[in-house]
């Protein structure tokens, strides 16, 4: 047996089962959700150790985010793929920062370095202020159109070995070609993020799954129906806090929310006010409507004001969390990217205690539906 094998592995997922990823390979040891991360120092050895832990736990993928206040994911990926065996990495990147040809060249190289353990999360950008930091002043709709052009060229470069010619509003490629193909042929799995209709359409045309921020299962079922009817897949980006008992979960929620950094909350509010992302604004609207409290008996919105849309959090005992995930599955959700506080501890709770319960429920449901 492989040294990294785990009886609760999420890697060998059966058809129709939920897929679970984790939100980052960077863990600075922060224990509070209501304070600002400090990324002024890169702890590379800590990131490697965290990725190895994810590998051991059977985490399918780690999301490598791209933001001005984070270390750049590309060099980090070059290190992490060489220090792990099974865990995959989802590279989040924004069209406009690199040419599509250079981007494919980088991804192809990483695919060979990792044995194909690379997926992509294409994000058009959420803040014109932050985009401006990188010299990018394309407006919201233009960024989404640029993403479509970017993905079109990516697909052409991965489709065959013929030179690619393309002329659009944002990119012009003349006889584009690369020597190194994607490892094993084909292309990486592509997740497309965003809340707008154009983001959904882009995921259907160029991606494998549409990723969005969460809501209650009932609201998700209402909103994703049209996309599912067109053959799409849906994933949620959110938080989880699971403990042996609900009392322990609530006590730990109070602990991670304690000592709130109100200056950081105000900074987040200003960031949201300047954002032009429908996903970001909608997540804060939902939290406001819930009074930054409970949106359902197990769905907590209080950390959104400090952490943004991904911080909508499932809170409860292991059984409650597993049951709630099955409700999301019934609503049409296929995948999750989770985060938690502290990141490593919560990842261990989820993959050793909650995931086995989800698999039990899924396999019992499959057996009940099987023909006699």
From TrEMBL:
Keywords, comma-separated and alphabetical? Flavoprotein, FMN, Monooxygenase, Oxidoreductase
Domain (Luciferase-like): residue spans on this chain: 42-334
Name one process (GO BP) from the record: alkanesulfonate catabolic process
Q: Which positions make up the signal peptide? A: none
Tell me the InterPro entries matching this sequence: Luciferase-like_dom, Luciferase-like_sf, SsuD_RutA_monooxygenase
Q: Does the keyword Flavoprotein apply?
A: yes
**Which Gene Ontology MF annotations are present?**
alkanesulfonate monooxygenase activity
- Supply the name of the protein: Alkanesulfonate monooxygenase
Native organism is Kitasatospora viridis
